[in-house]
Amino acid sequence: MTDASVTTATTTNIAHASVVAGEAAHFGKLAAQWWDPNGSSAMLHRLNPVRLRYLRAAIDRHWDLDDRSFTPLTGKSALDMGCGAGLLAEPLARMGARVTAVDAAAENVAVARLHAEGRGLSIDYRAGGVEAVAGETFDLVCSMEVVEHVSDPRAFVAGLAAAVAPGGLLVMSTPNRTWWSRIALVEAAERLGQIPRGTHDWDKFLTPDELSAMVADAGFDVIDTTGLSLGASGFVLGGSTALDYLVTAVRAD
């Protein structure tokens, strides 16, 4: 995919209250390399299979599904909020879901549409923030590594919760605000070029307790918190939440 094709497909970024213009611009500049496993999003490519493994387990557990099925989300709708260029949205579609995917950077949405079309996937891509799905609900709502980039995390989480249909599932991931995440994600990864400079603002990271409180305020219960850490061979689930973590939540009784 060339830069020209991305530019041609790009539309003006939509102003929504949850979107931080500088964040959208930062990630929009990375759009052309999003699907390059060796490019600026290389760490996301390494992270994505681990996130998918967690997500698949949460889906199977919540709906009591056969974990051998290739299409566990058949008949269900899914929202990927903060989708980038579709690294998670495309697997959700392959799992059978009717996928809506939203990103603050229109450049990312343009790349995502072209990539999905080239693989015969039908995904409803939209540019904007959580406001882009106001009034709509989905069986599964995902937002991975996004809440730390929005203008008002509490309002953002409330918007995600409002988008979850009755009986649905909310899954999020985000870096923890610890000394280890500061060293690993900001001081090391960005300085060494593993993550583009300016990607993270450590002060905006949320602890599991802080995120759980926001989820509770939105009328949901966190039913699982799992650490996402770096092992000898890459990212692994379980163990410490000091670097990053995933949460699963359902509507409170």
The total strand number stands at 8
Provide the low-confidence segments as ranges.
1-11
H/E series, N to C? HHHEHEHEEHEHHEEE
Percent helix, as a range, is: 25-40%
Rg over CA atoms: 17 Å
**Mean of residue pLDDT values:** 89
**Strands across the major sheet, in which order?**
3-2-1-4-5-8-6-7
> Can you say what the CATH homologous superfamily is?
Vaccinia Virus protein VP39
InterPro entries: SAM-dependent_MTases_sf (IPR029063), UbiG_MeTrfase (IPR010233)
EC number: 2.1.1.222, 2.1.1.64
Pathway: Cofactor biosynthesis; ubiquinone biosynthesis
Function: O-methyltransferase that catalyzes the 2 O-methylation steps in the ubiquinone biosynthetic pathway.
Task: List its traits.
about 250 residues; alpha/beta; Rossmann fold; eight-stranded mixed β-sheet; 8 helices; 8 strands; about 25% strand; globular; disordered N terminus
Element layout with pairings:
Elements: H1 3-9, H2 21-28, H3 42-63, E1 77-81, H4 89-94, E2 98-103, H5 106-118, E3 123-127, E4 138-144, H6 153-162, E5 164-175, H7 179-188, H8 208-217, E6 220-231, E7 234-237, E8 244-251
Parallel strand pairs: 1-2, 1-4, 2-3, 4-5
Antiparallel strand pairs: 5-8, 6-7, 6-8
Helix pairs in contact: 1-5, 6-8
Describe the structure.
The structure is a single chain. Helix 1 packs across helix 5 and helix 6 packs across helix 8. Helix 6 (153-162) links the parallel strand 4 (138-144) and strand 5 (164-175). By secondary structure, the protein is α/β, with parallel strands linked by helices. The protein has a single domain (3-251), classed as 3-Layer(aba) Sandwich (Rossmann fold). An 8-stranded mixed β-sheet has the order 3-2-1-4-5-8-6-7. It has helices at residues 3-9, 21-28, 42-63, 89-94, 106-118, 153-162, 179-188, 208-217, and strands at 77-81, 98-103, 123-127, 138-144, 164-175, 220-231, 234-237, 244-251. The protein is globular. It is an enzyme of class 2 (transferase). InterPro entries: SAM-dependent_MTases_sf, UbiG_MeTrfase. Belongs to the methyltransferase superfamily. UbiG/COQ3 family.
